[in-house]
């Protein structure tokens, strides 16, 4: 799953102009695939093997979790390398032609070091089969026992109370899903089942720390390693709740802004100067108050008009999502939702833009009291973007509005509005054959149709792959909504790990069988 | 001069009710003093001695500055004690009956230690003379050479460029003024001049760290050590500019508030929840924007109506102040004053209330970007109080208004408004005989009439003395507006130190001569 660090990976202090126009991914296939019929016999063999080898598969996850591959801390640099090697060994054993590839250097804790390499691999090269690209990451967030973990975070621990929860850093984000693919490959190998698709894979070791180097790698390998990819599957997000599998077909983008107000050239004492000067905080708070209403309505003229209208298909998909208001009340720890309508709530989180005021840099922010007039303050807010609110058209509206409102204040201070980061929204076709395959696989494995969700946050690497490779991407989560990626006591339920392995196998077989 | 720490010395999270009603100090004297005629012969002898003994007097200041009596750091606890002993020795030599008195214990850097003692002394007990109480402090702010000092901060250094500036921590705040009194006593002793008043003195060692223990000491000694005090003089503030002496007769008070908004029980990711919930920051920013206009106008209904009307005498005193807009533009480093009218600017700083928005606790405040929805935020603002805006009547208006405005938002979050600190404004009669005496002394020593100023900030200990002893207090500064108390390269001009000594002597003689 994405990190905040990664959300904000590309930063510019100038007004960014969207490099790529926002578009729905529409991929046309000119290559006729041989129709490979779906074989329930093949998958039932696989499923049987998976069920019978659960402890072996959990042991694989235990080995991976045991390697503290924290990408954001130089102290773990060898562990990150070790994790890449572990994957290469495992993949090679499973018949995958796998290798690590360097993606450049970066500054880590003040030292210039190699970026963690990407692990790439491929198995199968049959022109009659579809070629599926999978992505995952082998690095993890930091974790310390003393942060509040019940068990050592780098020792996979089966819940002694019998819930089946597998605790450990990386269990769900993203080692469990990555190994799910390896497990599926092993199941094919051990049961003598032919892989129904050509499989290409890329596992990065820098996801939790900004995915540096990955976009350049994708770009440079577009027509080499990535040549011939028909569609892509990423398993790095989660179910919306704890009981309903889902397929994810959209992500909101984000524009992060700073309103910078400056006045005096030094911080002043409010006793000495309060009542005599234009205080930057007064101007800033006034401007920030004009961005969004307490009902969550974005007050910037023109923004609402840009939002793509809701289609019938979308409406139906949102109405079908298994979701109760209790779910969000539990998740946020309080009954402070804008509405008690489930569909409006889901659309608010997933398909409508939102504007959040995050805080102020330069003002007093500590506990206690300080009678300062800050000389220069930066108000931070972001707008979650959706089709057709892009980086540029939204920014044009924001800058004009804030500057116009500032002029109305009649202040002698200076005001500047800066887009510090822009990430486009992403949406793909949820009726694509890859989604149909994932849908059927979910029904087979979990006995129920999946919800069709969008993520309210951004997963920038999805956008990079979509833009550069131009393929449909199905986000197919393994873990549940309460797995606690990035938190203490991160876990993956045994059932999700085991069923997730089957899901991937079923998905590949359905993918092969679906008419492109 | 006061510290921020001291401004906020009494903190309560409940809504404080003003303990003492706001009042002008009106002191009636029932005791007829013998009229002691002003003797220019006496003071000219004294002035001559002072001029001839400048290096001796500067040496005294050098000894004092050489003792790093930093009250806010346990590492200097012995130096603070040593500074008290130094004063006792000096005072005793000058014929003052001086002693240290304990004022309790406090926590310093995590250890419970004795508070620095107060040094009290008295000289003269003639019922026919007025009794003057003087206050000063012997502790200083921290200072390290590496903070940007040109010279060692604890070695008094005469500017080698010949400006006459005496650099050193405590030179102007407040060792120079304290020693000015000692110098004046020595001049009387050495010239065989009778002291025209009975003099009581209290020098504390905790001013820069909250004056803890002092209020209780004043209260407990009200009818003992402080019995018979007729008026008080404090030299612990500064001229408004660098060339015009002033007398200070008022201080603004301060009410410090927090608006606390809470919603969810944990911080949330704006990707996951933006657009679905009432965000506490949105409510807070909306409320904060309704407190003060960009033109500095307080928007809380009823506040303006409470302000005492400007009297003709006040108006004249403000109009007479030597002040140019350039002075404040230089002081703040920019032309962002609300007006270019000097009187309006001075009244804005000194006699009118002001409302400053200081910052927000709980929101994102660092450099960079973070897409957090803070679950609980505290907006901090303060109102500078003036007659007749007291702690309680102002707070009643603030709480009602903020709560009313919050109700209008239609938010499900919770809102609480809390007064975290209250300090009443203080004003005294600038036509009192003590001010008349200080006025004449200023004309004699500096060759010009003083400005009559008020401080925009608070000096809480002034209020304590005024309330408990019920006497007129003349704030009679020695240093200039650019002395840089609390800053690096704090200095006192030699002329201010030497003339300040004469000013105190002249003041005492004029005080004796003035009709009560």
UniProtKB/TrEMBL annotation, chains A, B:
Its cofactor is Mn(2+). InterPro entries: ArgE/DapE_CS (IPR001261), CNDP/DUG1 (IPR017153), Cyt/Met_Dipeptidase (IPR051458), Peptidase_M20 (IPR002933), Peptidase_M20_dimer (IPR011650). The record marks 269 as: Important for catalytic activity. Coiled coil: none annotated. Binds 2 manganese ions per subunit. Mn(2+) 2 binds at residues 137, 173, 236. Residues 249-406 form the Peptidase M20 dimerisation domain. It comes from the Eukaryota. CDD domains: M20_dipept_like_CNDP (cd05676). Transmembrane segments: none annotated. Signal peptide: none annotated. Belongs to the peptidase M20A family. PANTHER family: BETA-ALA-HIS DIPEPTIDASE (PTHR43270), CARNOSINE DIPEPTIDASE 2, ISOFORM A (PTHR43270:SF4). This is Putative glutamate carboxypeptidase protein. It comes from Kockovaella imperatae. The lineage of its organism: Eukaryota, Fungi, Dikarya, Basidiomycota, Agaricomycotina.
């Amino acid at each position: 799953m994405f990190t905040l660090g990664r959300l904000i990976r590309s930063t510019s202090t100038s007004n960014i102009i969207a490099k790529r126009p926002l578009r729905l991914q529409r991929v046309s296939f000119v290559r006729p695939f041989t129709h490979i019929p779906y074989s329930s016999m093949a998958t039932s063999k696989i499923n049987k093997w998976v069920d019978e080898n659960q402890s072996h598969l959990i042991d694989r996850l235990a080995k991976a979790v045991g390697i503290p591959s924290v990408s954001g801390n130089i102290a773990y640099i060898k562990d990150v390398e070790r994790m890449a090697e572990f994957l290469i060994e495992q993949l090679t054993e499973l018949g995958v032609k796998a290798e690590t590839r360097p993606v450049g250097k970066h500054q880590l804790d003040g030292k210039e070091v190699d970026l963690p390499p990407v692990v790439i691999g491929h198995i199968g090269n049959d022109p009659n089969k579809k070629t599926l690209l999978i992505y995952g990451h082998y690095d993890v967030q930091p974790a310390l026992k003393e942060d509040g973990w019940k068990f050592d975070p780098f020792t996979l621990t089966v819940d002694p109370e019998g819930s089946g929860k597998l605790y450990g850093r990386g269990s769900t984000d993203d080692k469990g899903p990555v190994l799910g693919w390896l497990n599926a490959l092993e199941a094919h190998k051990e049961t003598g089942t032919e892989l129904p698709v050509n499989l290409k894979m890329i596992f990065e070791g820098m996801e939790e720390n900004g995915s540096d180097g990955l976009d350049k790698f994708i770009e440079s390998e577009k027509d080499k390693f990535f040549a011939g990819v028909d569609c892509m599957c990423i398993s790095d997000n989660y179910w919306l709740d704890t009981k309903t599998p889902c397929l994810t077909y959209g992500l909101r983008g984000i524009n992060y802004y700073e309103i910078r107000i400056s006045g005096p050239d030094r911080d002043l004492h409010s006793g000495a100067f309060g009542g005599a000067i234009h205080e930057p905080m007064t101007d800033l708070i006034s401007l920030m108050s004009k961005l969004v209403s307490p009902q969550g309505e974005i007050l910037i003229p023109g923004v609402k008009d840009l939002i793509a209208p809701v289609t019938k298909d979308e409406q139906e998909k949102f109405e079908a999502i298994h979701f109760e208001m209790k779910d969000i009340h539990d998740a946020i720890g309080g009954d402070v939702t804008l509405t008690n309508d489930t569909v409006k709530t889901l659309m608010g989180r997933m398909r409508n833009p939102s504007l959040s005021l995050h805080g102020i840099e330069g003002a007093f922010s500590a506990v206690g009291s300080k009678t300062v007039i800050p000389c220069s303050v930066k108000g931070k807010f972001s707008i979650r973007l959706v089709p057709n609110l892009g980086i540029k058209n939204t920014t044009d509206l924001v800058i004009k509005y804030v500057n116009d409102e500032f002029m109305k204040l009649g202040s002698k201070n200076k005001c500047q509005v800066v887009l510090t980061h822009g990430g486009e929204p992403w949406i793909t076709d949820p009726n694509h054959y890859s989604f149909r395959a994932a849908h059927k696989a979910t029904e087979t494995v979990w006995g129920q149709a999946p919800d069709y969700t969008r993520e309210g946050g951004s997963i920038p690497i999805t956008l990079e792959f979509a833009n550069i490779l131009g393929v449909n991407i199905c986000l197919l989560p393994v873990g549940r909504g309460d797995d606690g990626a990035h938190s203490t006591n991160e876990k993956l339920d045994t059932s999700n790990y085991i069923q997730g392995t089957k899901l991937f196998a079923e998905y590949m077989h359905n993918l092969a069988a679906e008419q492109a």
